[in-house]
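USER:
Before I trust my own judgement here, I would like a peer's view. Write it directly below this note and I will take it from there.

ASSISTANT:
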Amino acid sequence: MEPAVLGSKLASGLVSQLIKRLFRPDGPGAGLVDKPVRLSALVSFRGEKRTLGEKDVHRLAEHLVRQAVDSPGEPPFRGREQTAVADALARRLLALGDLDMDDVQAVRLGHRQLAEKLHHRAPPPDGLSTDACHFLDSATEWACLQILEFFTRRSTFVARTLVEQTRSQAELIAKVDELIARSPRPGTEDRGFERRYLPYVADRHNHITIYGIDLRDSPDRWPLEVAYLSLEATTAEESPLAQEDPGGALTVQLPAEEALLAHDRVLLRGDAGSGKTTLVQWLAVTAARDGSGVPYVLPLRTLIRAGALPAPADFLTAVSCPLTPPEGWTERVLTAGRGLILVDGLDEIPAADRHRTRDWLLSLIRAFPGNRWLLTSRPTAVRPDWLAAEGFGELTLAPMRRPDVATFVHRWHTAAEAPEYEAPLLDSLRTKRDLARLATNPLMCGLICALHRERRGYLPTGRKELYDAALTMLLARRDRERGLELDLAEETQLELLQRLAYALVLSGRTEMELETAEAIVDRCLPAIGLTGPAPAVLGDLLLRSGLLRQPADGVVDFVHRTFQDYLGARYAVEEGHLDVLVGRADDTQWEDVIRMAVAHARPRERASLLRQLLARDVPRLTLLALACLEHAPALDAAVRTEVEQRAAALIPPASKEDARALAEAGPLVLELLPGPEGLSNRQALGVTITASVLGTEEPEGALGVLRRFREHGDLEVRRQLAGTWSRFDTARYASEVLDHVARHGLYLTCESAEQRAALPGMQPWSGLAFKGEHPVEEILAAVRAPEEVTLLDLRDNSGLTDLGALLPFGSLRNLLLARCTQARGLDRLADLPLTELICGQIADLTGLASLRSLRRLTLEQELPGRSLTEVLPVDAHLTYLFLGRHATNQTGLRGLEHWTELVDLSLGPLTTELTAADWQAVAALPRLKQLHLHARLLRELPRSIDHMPELPAVKVLRVTGLLGTEDLSALALRLPALHSVALQNMPGHDFPLSRFSDRFPGTDVRLLQR
């Protein structure tokens, strides 16, 4: 009988009276003595002060048992056992006096455990039936429940409980403190260190030098957020959105500081002075401040000096960070994937060390996947696919465009507190061709600004003259205007600097040991008539020249590689080392040295140097000779002609890559570009690409070339003409080129407010794209006839919130929404005649199901729901569907079989493995003829192909993003009825068609080169 049941047979009042009589009424206070009072001292039937005898306890027990037997209902046991049960219950109650515990301990024990102890303390009952024993146990538990209730109501119980709890908590806290002191909680030390390290990184890299600002008692270092200029980076890497883009842009462009948003691994290329190191600083400071990662800035020229490249534990030591991290901290950061590793200056180390650096970098990446990696380099330091196999995306810092230059000039003059010189300089940059050609990166812009202010508006026109003037400014005028006495004359400084520069050029390095530099200065002292100790002379040069610096203890270098090349070339020419220059022409690190040597050389020396370059009969050296011509105002006419004729063999360029390489030779190429007559479509495209690239340096000449192609019929050529609008004067390019280009198959992109403002002056475009924060109302105001627009492309527009604002485009059939992160209300577009929607990274896909007129649908973001039928329009007669990155993370391909009219299915670089059930949905499509797959599915999710069944209805296969190492045999087996296969390589990964064609016998296999 359970105690609860027994409670119905025993009156609680009767039991409570028994309990009160079993115990003395008052306790011993709060129990603050060392030995708390035990139960044996509390019972009323023991000790000298008894108030209840043992016979009394027996009588009370008999009374309780009788009440239970006489209560209504079935008796709990046989009547003749009543006396034996009462005696047994009395003996258990009397056992309370034998328990060695106090009331607090009893309550903590609980009524069942207390009853168990009484059962074992009392003599066992003899001869009782099973029912009687069960009743006895239940009665004991019921009595114990009442006893504990009685204890909790005693006046001393609460006080004693609090005391016990306080003592226990104090003991526990002391033990925990001791445990923490012996074994700190994992991560506590790390977080404490990071609270010091991240502010240190942010402070250390939050300043940049703006050349020339320190000439008039102004600081030369400015906060990064004030001076930083957001430049543009370009990449040719395939994007699923770009694949389905009706305009098919040739390159993807993005702000350089967003380099690591699209890829976790980036090789960033940029010319000298283009802002690579400044970008590294910006990324480090941003990450340190917003907590998006733990940045490590690792300049290679510093790391390589120590010989062995550092392991993660030595990252901070290698860059002279004064903070000491907890042991193993860097490895824990990288293991958790929280690292932002910024490796700067691949081009600043010798070629022999680059492979070692590559192995070091790849070993780190393989050991610590999941982190973000950025490596910077000059464009030609390593081959295009140097790290592509390891998943590195390549970006190139684009030259500064006119708006960038204007922004830089404004910030420079604001920082220098010289606003009166800003407008005249901007006018000069617009009208002086040679000057504008030089202002292509922050370094040169800074020098031009400084020289313009120093010369009160007068500027040199050539690159050599500009450097000559810059050196004079840095070596002499700065100290003179500060009122400092010049210890070393300008020519003396030049002699020392050019010898140091040439030594660095010969060694292929950008840094040298302090002892080496002192030895070079020591050997030079007699020649320049100085007798002072070499360390003192070198120290003065470091202090005063403005060109040489000491980035770390025991190391010297030039403030920028450009000065090293210029001065090294000057010394090579003076010493007659032209043969040395030609012998090193194959090394890309020597390109600028050779160009500057031509500028320094005498006419006869120039002719000899250029002939030797041509004699090598290497295309790159021929283009290098061509690039040198701009630095050779006086040159033998026969040599100039030979260079131009040899270069003509490379013109017109045969490919996009050749076109960009040709543009590196400089604006002189524009005079040699032919066409459009007599050119194939591919050649015409190459010519327009070359002219487009040169549009920043020589807009007038480049515009003249592009104007000749404005009526060309090839779609790719017309796309190039439309895509290069931003490099030229907006209104002029619109009227002279764009307004004459055939519109069919083409759309026009507007990136700036100026371009948008030019739209009303042109003939209407049926296809328009707006990239960036263009308010919808201003777009509508600029479009003369929105009801005639059939294609609209909106990208990177966080101001677009309500898609219902697009309803004035009443004839819209094709709509692209990319990275419009606040856009909502797809259902508002249900009344438009949309047949194609390309959508990626908008705020909400709710309402997509209402777009019943769609025939083609491209999605590149995670779809909500558990099935495609929960998201996609079930009433739409879809014939084409593209599902890109992350799209199938939740839905898979479940429900795909609903769209029975689907002919073309394209699967991009998915991030979730396809299951057998997913492929069964594909197999259930009765009209499916074309299947497009991204090669990442084969490389990274190979089991997806293992689950793929035979698809005998598929006739056309397209595989994009191939590296050339994939095995396509599984696809050939599962697609037995193929008629056509199109294979497209990942940019920078070329391979012969024969590598794959044998896998598809009897099938038309084509290779689409990118």
Observations:
- Residues 157-182 form the longest helix (26 residues).
